TrEMBL record, chains A, B:
Keywords: Amino-acid biosynthesis, Histidine biosynthesis, Metal-binding, NAD, Oxidoreductase, Zinc. Its EC number is 1.1.1.23. PROSITE patterns: HISOL_DEHYDROGENASE. Binds 1 zinc ion per subunit. It comes from Vibrio halioticoli NBRC 102217. This is Histidinol dehydrogenase.
């Protein structure tokens, strides 16, 4: 890991050192995904089976996973795994349940009542990537809020064969339909629907470059589907002072680095001594990791920044806007009011990122790649939408009328004005 | 207006009759906007002045409107106009102030505390279109929530010359900087910043096809800026039964139609008699409108749907998902729990859309073009973001550890597991 001292850098160098690597999506990915999306739109299920055979190397007997298969998978799962998933389900449920918003009613002036009401998004699609190991935690992070929001229909796609852990959580979250589908074909199927696959309103979940490109394409088409948030490589920043435990900091930086070669791990510390200790601890811990090669690649582009104060460390963090931010300082909570651009914040020595990644209750789907400046941690709000409602009494309208009429006149909108005056005239005539 | 009877249509015809016209953005618009964005990125203020001279026919002495000019505009404005704008400001403020969310804290299991905190987006840019008449109402709809959310810096662009009404509201909302800029160049300037224009995190506001395309382009660039929501033509649906006042319904349909030739006005009614009366009333009222030609064009593609029941009318509305939905039935509030896809709902005879367009308190920036299925009415939430926070005690981590370890093992993520076990081992060793 490279170490830089913040104060010794020019403003330009400070900016450069925290720049994220540009994501270069090859034009070949765009074209390949466009072809996949088109074939799913025109050929439906047939295209899905062909593409699954081509990309996943299996032609499933059925696109939809039957309830019997789901029950059997659940029955097969070891009790210890079930207990862990159940505990995570409970904690994530408690935190997301608390995010429910009661309807809001405000009488802005006598007889003018404005309301804000929440409705679940009707139909949502969850994407769970395949790969070397199953990701049941992501099913929880998407399935629990969908269930609590009360979405009418929740479907899930994952490339076959789908692991028992995923099917178990799908059942736990009461997901309506599970499909043996991965990649761009899964995204296209959910965005446009096929004979078997339900068309959804919004698609959630992580994925590789093809999945990301497919989500981008279907979300740019108003006949497609909405998506959760822009994707980017995962990243962590640790703010630490001289009281931090170097072994813990090293473990946290490594747990980010093992995600992928493009993961970013950045330590910002006021202590040069701690920086040295963390560098040593990383070398020691790295040797024991099964995903050592991946972590090493990620660490090559990672960084230690020496800050001259915690105030400066906070400013660096707010400028970078990390997806995950771990604060290991003497009084971590003191810094919280000053922190603004982050996806999820972990306070103190006993709050490792992996607690939130799996089971504490917070969501692990977070804005990354600088999108923390404008995007939120995934939550109940993303599975619902807010509508406004208003109801005016006769007197309310009469009182508000001069304001509306004056403004409509200024904006040259006659019919807007008439919609008010025609009503007020009728009220006056009725007297 | 065309009239159709819902029951007499096949499912395919029902679908077709409610299809929105496709928005065909010419490739020439895309290319023209790309050129504008590029020149603003490379040449900054110089490009802004050149482009403003080219497109708006004036070369302003200064890009930024001085505080003296703003004060002078405010002083010039007639008292009646100020009173109307002040009243609207007050009502919109009351409704958006009530949307503030207190921080949420949940102890999901003993010693595991999860929080949801809200932060204002740091820097936001508001775009107010020019045109034949000023749009101070849109300044209110964007400026009030930005002010209440507590955004650190709020800037506004509008093509010169900027009307006194707009400058007055900018002052009311305490907007930090106002620029003489319109079109794609305004969007590019706010997304990337120039010598004079502040770079913003997120851009809000309506605009023509060039503005919409520029917003799309800068939001697809992670070094650009976020945007509020996808754009589309404005639309209204009225659900009415035999108790509705045909003059009121006609006035509401017309106040939508006068917005632009692509506006959609749809009446869904259980009463054939009412449908006839509304058609007559539209003809009568149309004659008196200054924007008669525009309204006539919009009405040409508008529609009356005869439904056999209010239940069916509600289903039609939920399927179409109108931006504005006006309910003029005997008991409008009875239908509210059944309505789910709409931007803003107006209940009863005395709640015309123009009340909400200007001054009742609700926001008039709403999802349209079917995006009501997944997007919300603009509100305080759009000017802020939610971060999660967690803090575990030593005992909290010890209790949660087996769950995290089991799940990390299932996902093959060693370092995630180590970040927990290294801490628990230290706790056990310290005993």
């Amino acid at each position: 890991m490279r170490t830089v001292t913040w104060e010794s850098l020019s403003a330009e160098q400070q900016n450069a050192v925290l720049q994220r690597p540009a994501i270069t999506e090859g034009a070949n990915i765009t074209a390949a995904v466009t072809a996949v999306v088109e074939s799913v739109k025109t050929e439906g299920d047939k295209a899905l089976l062909d593409l699954t055979e081509k990309f996943d190397g299996v032609r499933p007997e059925s696109i939809r996973v039957s309830n019997e298969e789901i029950d059997a998978a659940a029955a097969r799962l070891p009790e210890k795994m079930k207990a862990a998933l159940n505990q995570a389900y409970k904690n994530i449920g408690a935190f997301h349940q608390a995010q429910k918003l009661p309807p809001l009613t405000v009488e802005t002036q006598p007889g003018v009542v404005c309301e804000l009401v929440t409705r679940a998004i009707n139909t949502v699609g969850l994407y769970i990537p395949g790969g070397s190991a199953p990701l049941p935690s992501t099913v929880l992070m998407l399935g629990v809020p969908a269930q609590i929001a009360g979405c009418n229909k929740v479907v899930l796609c994952s490339p076959p064969p789908i692991a028992d852990e995923i099917l178990y959580v799908a059942k736990l979250c009461n997901i309506d339909e599970v499909y043996n589908l991965g990649g761009g074909q899964a995204i296209a199927a959910m965005a446009y629907g096929t004979e078997t696959v339900v068309k959804v309103d919004k698609i959630f979940g992580p994925g590789n470059a093809y999945v990301t490109e497919a989500k981008r394409q279907v979300s740019n088409d108003f006949r497609g589907a909405g998506i959760d948030m822009p994707a980017g490589p995962s990243e962590v920043m640790v703010i630490a002072d001289e009281t931090a435990d170097a072994d813990f900091v090293a473990a946290d930086l490594l747990s980010q680095a093992e995600h992928g070669p493009d993961s970013q791990s950045i330590l910002v510390t006021t202590s040069v001594l701690l920086a040295d200790k963390v560098t040593d601890a990383i070398q020691r811990q790295l040797a024991e990791l099964s995903r050592k090669e991946i972590a090493e690649q990620a660490l090559a582009s990672s960084l230690i920044v020496i800050a001259e104060s915690l105030t400066q460390a906070v400013a660096i963090s707010n400028f970078y806007g990390p997806e995950h931010l771990i604060v290991q300082t003497r009084n971590p909570r003191e810094l919280l009011p000053l922190l603004d651009n982050a996806g999820s914040i972990f306070l103190g020595d006993w709050s490792p990122e992996s607690a939130g990644d799996y089971a504490s209750g917070t969501n692990h789907v977070l804005p990354t790649y600088g999108y923390t400046r404008t995007y939120s941690s995934l939550g109940l709000a993303d599975f619902s939408k807010r509508m406004t409602v208003q109801e005016l009494t006769q007197d309310g309208l009469k009182t508000l009328a001069p304001t509306v009429v004056t403004m409509a006149e200024a904006e040259g909108l006659d019919a807007h004005k008439r919609a008010v005056t025609i009503r007020v005239e009728k009220l006056l005539a009725a007297k």
